[in-house]
Amino acid sequence: MSKVMTASAPTLAVSYNDMANAIRALSMDAVEKAASGHPGMPMGMADVATILFSEFLKFDPKHPHWPDRDRFILSAGHGSMLQYALLYLTGYADMTLDEIKRFRQLGAKTAGHPEFGHATGIETTTGPLGQGLANSVGFALAERMLAARFSNLVDHHTYVIAGDGCLMEGISQEAISLAGHLKLSKLIVLWDDNKISIDGPTSLTISEDTAKRFEASGWFVQAIDGHNHDAIRAAIKKAQASDKPSMIACRTKIGYGAPSKEGSEKCHGSPLGKDEIAGARKNLGWSHGEFEVPAEILNAWREVGARGGKTFAEWNKKANDKNFDRLMNGDLPDGWNAALAAFKKKLAETKPKEATRKSSENTLEVLTAAIPEMIGGSADLTGSNNTKTKAMKAITASDFSGSYIYYGVREHAMGAAMNGMALHGGFIPYGGTFLIFTDYARPAIRLSALMQQRVIYVMTHDSIGLGEDGPTHQPVEQLASLRAVPNLYVFRPCDAMETAECWALALAQKQSPSILSLTRQNLPALRTEFTEKNLCAQGGYILSDAKDAKVTLIATGSEVSIAIDAQKKLAEKNIAAKVVSLPCWELFDVQPQSYRESVLGKNTLKVAIEAALSFGWERYIGQDGIFIGMKGFGASAPAPDLYKHFGITVDDTVNAVIARLT
Ligand SMILES: Cc1ncc(C[n+]2csc(CCOP(=O)(O)OP(=O)(O)O)c2C)c(N)n1
Ligand SMILES: [Mg+2]
């Protein structure tokens, strides 16, 4: 490869070949030292990455959080060494050669797959194939939406490297379909078209024309030799000029340079071995030692890393907008709490009897006005999830100034795109579907939690209370399974007041996603007094006390009113019971033991009421408590009939208590 001199790339003292080989060598060596990892992909995509970073990517390792930097997403996260090598070579201070040598070791920034928050320059956690690609749709959307609001401060690209695996995943179709529809022209996907995955050649499993799939979804598609630097450059230039999102199929050889394993699955996910590495060094003309990058090559890379400094400085001069800084920091605006307090006062007066999905909508009317960075949406259930407020305008391909996204029936991509938006910064995304379909979005929900992103899932129709749609639509195990996810807050409010409070808590959790589990059916107002304090903040509290209580009735959401009525009936029979509303287990479980004991009661009979499976409730009711809820799947019928049929009523509760106490 000749020394490259182009107008856009100031002359470097070494060839792009040398620079790409530095990535290859570091990747081979790091994987070998760790005795695990994926050398093939970084070796195959080293050329594409070298051209992208050297000539196109707008970045500044000295200011890795520069809001207007281009975003680089390594969707094929198993190729993590590609990213780590680039971060080290271009001069990110926290990505040292020692970190590269500690690849995949405990506490290293160089985890097996790129993890958001471990090293600067890693924009999102990848590894579950397809997620990064779908995140990138959120990144690109956030960029367009911010540009519509701050045209002088935001104008950047989102580049993605995706592999065969990313594109085989179903989520890829949801994502590219949405991106094509919204004409996200600043999104550029570089497909590592190496025709190899773990089991062997992709011909084993796939025969469609991937390029045509993108084209059919409204993308601009090019196909190039991914080892030809001029072709890579020309394609990225054309992609930048397109008014559509772009996919460049980069035909590459996995494990480029490895004498016997190049082009084969054998170099996908295991160390090459000493001899193979020696052979690769010879083939590549890389005579340097293990982890050794000669000064002139490192300097050339550092020069690439230093180029963005000027652009950053120019940008920084004009960046003096306090509101922009606030948005990028994710701080809530002044006054939102006061607006919510006024709303709570109104609720205490009006005492609405309504579904909590409706309460959520009413709360959103207040919150989205006070917090305009909230970006709503729904996976084709807007009218059912009550996610769109009156003033909200839809985002379209020609107008990104709105704040509502019609995601279409694409729950998984909705979750992943919301992750991308939250990661990009500037917005607080929330999106709705039925609680049952959290299962369709679960990998994205899990990543919201793992990446500590404030993404709010508005999940309505949260039990058999949805009625006639039947067991396919009635969640029974979802609450338990969502409560099992670390760093995910599951809120199940019992009325309008609790819904407002739970929304406030979800918004205040800057480093956690939340699920709002909301009803389809109407519920009575149970919290009818105004309190300045957010009573849901401790996760659970005594909603209705009783002197010398023998029984504690603990319930969530729609079943709290059953507990309140059961309390009354038990009182008539001289059985004192108190009622605990427990809208958020995660918040309750971190309260001091003294508080939890005072709420639950020490020597009372514990009765839990929740129209879901009992899984997990043992922690509150113990082995000898009573659980009133579901034992299996639901059924199709009007909701009141189902509650009776499944034994989740006031009488069932009262009878169970009496049977136990007498
Ligand atoms: C959702 C998901 N399923 C399975 C895996 C395990 N996995 C990691 S890489 C890979 C094959 C990917 O093939 P490709 O994207 O072509 O990567 P290449 O072998 O070309 O590097 C698989 C199945 C994963 N990481 N994520
Ligand atoms: Mg492949």
Report on the biggest sheet.
6 strands, parallel
Overall mean pLDDT stands at 97
Q: Which structural category fits the helices and strands?
A: alpha/beta
Q: Going across the major beta sheet, what is the strand order?
A: 9-8-10-11-13-12
Q: Could you tell me which ligands this complex binds, including any ions or cofactors? A: thiamine diphosphate, magnesium ion
Q: Helical amount among residues, as a percent range?
A: 40-55%
The end-to-end span amounts to 89 Å
Short overview:
The protein is α/β, with parallel strands linked by helices. Helices cover 42% and strands 13% of the residues.
Task: Please describe the topology of this protein.
Elements: H1 16-34, H2 40-56, E1 71-74, H3 80-90, H4 97-101, H5 131-149, E2 158-163, H6 164-168, H7 170-181, E3 187-193, E4 196-197, E5 200-201, H8 210-216, E6 220-225, H9 229-241, E7 246-251, H10 274-284, H11 295-306, H12 308-318, H13 322-329, H14 336-350, H15 356-370, E8 374-378, H16 382-385, E9 404-406, H17 411-424, E10 428-434, H18 438-450, E11 456-460, H19 478-483, E12 489-491, H20 496-508, E13 514-517, E14 541-544, E15 551-555, H21 560-572, E16 577-581, H22 585-589, H23 593-600, E17 605-610, H24 618-621, E18 626-629, H25 639-645, H26 650-661
Parallel strand pairs: 1-2, 2-3, 3-7, 6-7, 8-9, 8-10, 10-11, 11-13, 12-13, 15-16, 15-17, 17-18
Antiparallel strand pairs: 4-5, 14-16
Helix pairs in contact: 1-2, 1-3, 1-10, 2-3, 2-9, 5-7, 5-17, 7-17, 14-15, 14-20, 15-20, 17-18, 21-26
